[in-house]
Amino acid sequence: MSEQSQVQIAILKNDPEHLILDIVGQSAPIVNALRRVLIADVPTVAVETVLIQNNTSVIPDEILAHRLGLIPLNIDPSLLQYKKPEDQRTWENTVVFKLKVQCTAKKNANVGLDDKFKYNNSQVLSSDFVWVPEGGQQELFKDKAPAPVIPDILIAKLGPKQEIDIELHAIKGCGKTHAKWSPVCTSTYRLLPEIILKRPITGIAARYLQQTCPLNVFDIEEIKGKYQPDDVDDEEDEEQEDQQQKRVMEMDKDTKKHNVGTQCVVKRPRNCSMCRECIRGAWQEKIKDPQKREKVENAVELTRAKDYYIFSVESTGVLTSSTLMTNAFDILIEKLEKIKQLLIQHK
Ligand code: SF4
After folding, report:
1. Start-end of CATH 3.30.1360.10 domains in the chain
2. Which residues form the DNA-directed RNA polymerase RpoA/D/Rpb3-type domain (predicted)?
3. Burial class (CB in 10 A: 0-12, 13-18, 19+), 230
4. 198, 213, 276, 303: which to mutate for ligand 1, most atoms within 8 A of CB?
5. pLDDT per residue as tens digits for the range 62-85
6. Which ipTM was obtained for this model?
7. Is the pLDDT score of 132 beyond 60?
8. Residue 228, CA distances (Å) to 85, 110, 222, 261 in order
9. Band of pLDDT at residue 254, cut at 50, 70 and 90
10. What is the CATH number assigned to the segment(s) 45-182?
11. With respect to CATH, is domain 1-42+183-196+304-347 assigned 3.30.70.3460?
């Protein structure tokens, strides 16, 4: 089997907003390249130009323009052309929105009420964006009218008679130019944690270890038919035993041996945050018998699987997370192909 064919991918979660993949057998530079392409090279559409006719709100023009740029828009970037700074604005490279909101007092509203009830339009929300179709855009966007992805993003609060009157021009771009075009909230990977129990941890020690982990990585399992000498703990510990632990103390009438034992097992390693609580030894100090304590000292080892990546992509909602991933693969392949062609030309 070639090295390439050993790469495995498993999809653990595939929501429109969140994709989690297990990538096994790949090298870190390739996985990191994919992450960086997702952040910086997958194009989206965002507000680039803000023409302010009137802004009497308390938010300065520059801050308002910055906030408007960061609002994710549901526009498919493949439907628009790139617009360079020297290019003219056309319906093929720019989507225009209007934002015109004025705050007015409601008639007969109680004085003590919240602003929302006393005034009309006391909050300017992303749902106040009004798309202004130009040229052939009605046909181009017939499946989905351009609008903010989330309708209730708060842009500004207005007092009575304050007004915002703005025209917005949205264009296609990439995250490497400005973060507002980045299609992901986060794109991360981490190596799968490996928690190795170098010796069996049984009885009350197993329970102490399980309880010390804040992320529920360990479970306690029964080991039937085995004599577990470590399960016999001193009297004080025995009093703390829960119902499950009491079963450990039951003796088989014929063999005079414990017929049920318990031991700690690593059950959910991907939960592990590498907090190191399990190797710090606080749980071992709870064991009163020094001999038993010695047996479990340094029994836990923390490491990471060498080529097992947990890859996570959270979309801003502009495109589904799985579409972002496939776009990222296409862009990465295209980049590599360009480099290959350049090398061939210079041979
Ligand atoms: S490092 Fe922390 S989270 Fe991971 S297994 Fe140990 S205690 Fe649990």
Report:
1. 1-42+183-196+304-347
2. 18-342
3. buried
4. 213
5. 999 999 999 999 999 999 999 998
6. 0.99
7. yes
8. 76, 74, 11, 6
9. low
10. 2.170.120.12
11. no
